[in-house]
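Let us work through a complete example step by step.
Step 1: write down the sequence.
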Amino acid sequence: MSKKITCIFIAFLGLFNLSYAQSSVAHEIGGFLGPSVMKSDYGQRNDDPSTYRNTGFAIGFIHYLNFSSNSMSSAYFKEHFKVRSELSFNQTELNHFGKWAENGNSIGKRQLRAMEGKSSILNLGAQLEYFPFRRIHDFEYTVGSFSPYFSLGLQCNFYNVKSSSSMGELGTVAATFPKYLIPSDGHSYGFSTESSSTWSIVSGVGSRYKLTPLSDLLVEFRLQYFGSDWVDGLNPNKQIFTENKYNDWQVGLTFGYIFYLD
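Step 2: predict the structure and record it as tokens.
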């Protein structure tokens, strides 16, 4: 119940930002697209080359509240902060890579290689963007300039995950690697096929480029940490498999376009 309440609250923040239009704040809209990498229980721990092979994509719609034309806040806040709401979608195909799955033909390695997953995530939330190096007005009046920023926020995430094996039905001894046969975190096994929701913390660093007086280009590196370890469909019992220390998370590099409405 607490997870649902958290998601509802975060979603409300995002919708509030999208609908907020009763003051003289300026509005900006845009979209982004780019690759995203799921850092999950698929792949080998601390082996980045194998983990980065689980690369998917992210696409999204974004809306900004620009306070630089409004007198409701302090001058520094107006000229260095924007509030961003986001509706986005991620999808990643997942497979096991690394030394524990490759370079051998034992039954365990074949089971890992045969296991695959698919994680689809719908995200809704809000972030605060901080532009520390120049005033927002100065950037808006200078075509061809850059304005780096940092961001931090919360999202509600609705995910659908599928787990399967080309060797047969998961949950059977013949097709399932032993660590995933053990019950975990309220599930009958250490894998799942389900639709559920969670929350996430999102942080990023990026920059805008002033393309025209009313449009910007955007590039951003993002890290997203989920409040659940089931987003990828795998979560081996943490009490037994102590290497399973963290929830799922993902990193992404996105490219976008922003248009000024006001």
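Step 3: interpret the result. The domain at 2-260 is CATH 2.40.160.20 (Porin).
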